[in-house]
Amino acid sequence: MSQNHLVSRFKYIIIFLLLMLIDVSPIPVTALIGLYVVLFRPRWFMQMIDNIY
Q: Where would you find the membrane-spanning parts of this chain (predicted)?
């Protein structure tokens, strides 16, 4: 695995950890982002998956 893949994985792990902390609030932020990704399939999501794998 190249260094770029490791940096991308680490960056997204940090982002998901922050989302988990924010999700403690009364508004379910993670569920809303998940719904958005499922409904609209944004380009940034596919780029994120390509960067990880």
A: 12-39
